Every structure is written in C-alpha cells, then in structure tokens.
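Reminder to self: keep the SMILES exactly as supplied, no canonicalising. Ligand is S-adenosylmethionine.
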Amino acid sequence: MTNEEQYIDALLETDQVLEQIRTATAAQGMPDIAVAPGYGRLLTMLVAMNNVTKALEIGALGGYSGVCIARGLQQGGSLTSLELLPQYAEAAKRNVTQAGFGDCISYLVGDAKLSLEQLVERNEKFQFFFIDADKEGYPAYLEYAIQLAEPGAVIVADNILLRGRTINEHKQGPAVQAVRGFNQTIANDPRLQSTLLPGYDGLAIARVLAK
Ligand SMILES: C[S@@+](CC[C@H](N)C(=O)[O-])C[C@H]1O[C@@H](n2cnc3c(N)ncnc32)[C@H](O)[C@@H]1O
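Structure tokens returned for the bound complex:
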C-alpha cells in the first residue's frame, strides 16, 4: 500500500461490521483479498446514488463486498452473489446474515459463467454489477454484465492493475492478458461511459449507455 493510501485509510473510521467480516473470513481459511476499505465505501455510494434495487456480484469470498453493496440498496432491494466454491458461499452467507443482510443477499454457487448464462436465459436485469472473481474471466463477465444491464446500469471491476503486472510488459500470462483486454474494452467501448481509477489495485467504473 502506498503512503497516500495509508494516509487516506487512516482518515476513514474503522467499520466494526466489515472488520468483523475480514477477521471471520481469515479465520474461515479464506485469503485476505476482499476489496479495499476505500473502494468498499465507493461501492455503497454508487449503489445508493443510482437507486439500485437489483445488484449482481461476481466473486463473494467471505461477504465483505456483499455487505458494502447491500448497504446501498433501496428498501426491498436484493443482491445476487455468484461464487465458485460452496464453502466460501456458505461462509459468506453466515457472515452477511450476522451483519444483518441475510434476507437481501442470495448466492448462486458454481462457475460464474454458468450462473450468468442462466440469468440471461431467465431474462433477468440488474442496475449494478461488481466484477471481482477470476481475472481470466473478466472479458466474458463484462459482456454478460452488458447483456444483463438495465440502461444506465453501473459496472465496477476490482484489481485491474494486478499489483503492477498489468503494466509490466514481461508479464504475459492469461490473467494479465485478459485484464489488459478488459481494460481496453471498458475504456473505449461505445456502449459504455467509463473511467479507471489507479488507487489500491485499480478499479474500473462504467455506465451502460442506453442501447
Ligand atoms: C477477490 S475474491 C472476491 C472478494 C469479494 N468480492 C470481496 O471484496 O469481499 C474472488 C472470489 O471469486 C471466486 N471465484 C473465482 N473463480 C470463480 C468463478 N469462475 N466463478 C465464480 N466465482 C469465482 C473465488 O472463489 C473468490 O471467492
């Protein structure tokens, strides 16, 4: 973390509910890879500012970002969270229930691409997306999000810098190449209005323009 990020993190009041989830996530044997606190707050703000009632998250881990998104939802709103590993989805469910959001978050377990295909078949629509799963899947997840988006929907994706690997020309692995392609698309696709933030591990934010 840079000095600037440390400075800003220190300004933000410790969020006991989210810190409890971070601790529980580690205790449940999951890696410490939840979204950064500053970006978690941004998720809540973007969901609230866009009056979101239906949100979709790809990559649940222990439920940290799930709570950030759920906090911004309109009354009666819901979050669908896609998670590959059943034990992670179960732990996330326990953690978000303890945080008071069990009723508005549901989990679809398995490879996100299969879950996304089912959501397309059911003609489901969402107003907010958070992409935060396997990096090789990012280009496909973006296309699914655009397909599942209501006009004006917001798409957010974390870790677009891959701890520096994205801008290191010696790194040419499949995850790096996929994220580079994803970043190019999100920056230039005429279906989107977008920006890319370099703080923490990089965050992309896009708005789906009316089709
Ligand atoms: C970076 S973590 C998610 C962090 C979480 N969004 C948060 O901020 O609290 C990535 C998650 O994606 C899940 N994942 C990896 N590949 C996946 C796939 N193909 N489909 C669904 N989930 C996947 C992992 O099991 C892991 O829980």
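Points to follow up:
The mean pLDDT is 97.
Residues 3-208 form a domain with the Rossmann fold fold (CATH 3.40.50.150).
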